[in-house]
Amino acid sequence: MSFKIMRPPRLAVSCAWAGLMAATMGPAWAEPAPPFAQLVEQIEQAPASREAAALEDAASARVLQARARPNPIIGIETENVLGSGLYSGFSNAETTLSVSQDLELWNRRGVRIGAARAEADAAAVRRDLAVTDAVGRLATVYAEAEAAQRRFQLAEEALELTLADTNASLAQVEEGRQPRLRAVQAEAEAASARATLDEARADMDAAFVSLTVMAMLSSPVTAVADSLLDRTEVLTAPSNEQAPAIKAAEAERLAAERRIRVERSLGRPDVTANVGVRRSQMDDATSFTLGFSLPLPFFDQNRGNIQAAQAELRATEARLEAARQDVRAQQGAAVARLKASASRVSAADAGVASAEEAYQLSRIGFESGRISQLELLTSRSALISARTAAVDARLARAGAEIDLARLEGRTPFEGDQK
Questions:
Q1: Residue ranges making up the domain that contains 279
Q2: Ramachandran region of residue 178, left (φ > 0), alpha (ψ -120 to 50) or beta?
């Protein structure tokens, strides 16, 4: 019993070819993203960077305020008035005009300024850390957008290969060299490839939306021209003490140490000097008054705040030690991932070359009738998987470089060679 091969399968393949051409021509109007280095120059405008810069400005303003001395206190006092007898009116009044000034002994002003400076230095380090993190997030989104673009291009190529193989299968079916089942299977493979292409397009669109938002671009971008995935890694000897996380922890510890000095100075009595002029109406005479005043530290010696500041210092020392351990561990892991990803990229590229050759041989063998459709499908699937693995390997290498750069406080891919 024979089956008549109908034309609709060929028509379906033609429609698939038209869809492929539309997908390929769709991004022709695409707006490419600016180079990564150009986006890094604008990272200061990122919300996290602006927040950290504003906090640094606030800390610098507190240094200015810490320099200010206490305002003098002026007072006026009238005695011996509105009483009885000789003091019934204002004829025997004694009026004193005085000025009081806190002397800020015990180097109180100096330690206050020192603490404010330490807080400002810590804020500056936190700003640098925020900028480094923002650059790392931008690099990650940029690399992911490029990877999504490459996966979409691979999906286009996979659909093109699948359609070419489908046409070859349909031709053999029409010639009677293959059963009609092969045409149905080929159509199913083409439909699956089209679905994969649609999924890759959706992922690419989402990745470019994230890049547009993260890079604060005024118009949407739909392509990446500056490649990060093809840049090679540059391994340098890591310096733990230069890591932003450690610098921030050290600055916090110093600020906590300075706060202890402030609390200790506040535990000592405030000495106030008084200078005044007294006018006596009864004697029609003027005299001067001099004096000092200070509270007696019987009850409040600020011990609780001193102990709290000392406990905060111990906490910052523990955080500093934890930061050193974390940076040391993360740097070692990042260097290991970077080395491993470089080897993985080399292996993936070799696998792509072998898979391409195997597919070409399978295609030739299939067209000559020596290779079955299943073997052709296997070789094509292996080629698609190898190309996808090469993209994943490059994305992993870029991610390792971004992590290492963040730990070292530098811009990722800075100085790398393509």
A1: 70-103+269-301
A2: beta
